[in-house]
Amino acid sequence: MKRWNFVATEVSRHPGLPDRPRPRFPACMCALATLLLLGTLAQPASAKIYVYVDERGVPHYSNVQHDARYREYKPPPFIPPILRLPREVRGTDTRFLDEIERAARLYRVDPALVAAIIRVESDFQPRAVSPKGAQGLMQLMPATAARFAADNPFDPRENIDAGVRYLAHLLRLFNGNLPLVLAAYNAGERKVLQYRGVPPYPETQAYVRQVLRWYAASRQSRHGR
After folding, report:
1. Does residue 99 carry a catalytic annotation?
2. Which of 6, 59, 80, 101 is the most buried (most CB within 10 A)?
3. Cβ neighbours of residue 18 under 8 Å, at least 6 residues apart?
4. Domains of the chain by range and CATH?
């Protein structure tokens, strides 16, 4: 059996983070392309792909389980209609697609990423409140809502606008390094800078994996039509 390994290298140029090799494509597209490729390749029934995510949030893929860090890669689950942008798709939550697409265009963020975050954060429930006090569709903490001018975080338009503005800020701050961006959205940007990568919190690490799976499946379903 021929062995192969693949590391989804990404760029970080923030002064608080270490430099890494520059990829040929933007960082978020490199990581996403890897997920899409691995999720769509037709593999024999006996073939397995293994992956582990290092302390910087960079996934390492191989067809050999080198050590206990490598876990079997599972393809993304079935994607429900809401994430199949653009709008031709009909579904229960399509009432929010206008606001997602408007904010995504305004702040130059992929609407599929916004939809994936909303799916994981609130399951598209505009009145959702977390035990820690995060509110609305994109689960904004009161300080974040105030920072990005969401006077009423339970209003879908205000919540999505503020959440996407914050997401765009994180994408700039971490130079498109998607695992770090998502970790910062979940745990706060200071924690990501402090740990120089994805913080070692099980909740945050699970959150990053979950959003990336939804995002990859969303883009795969959109481009596969």
Report:
1. no
2. 59
3. 12, 56, 196
4. 5-72 (no CATH), 81-223 (1.10.530.10)
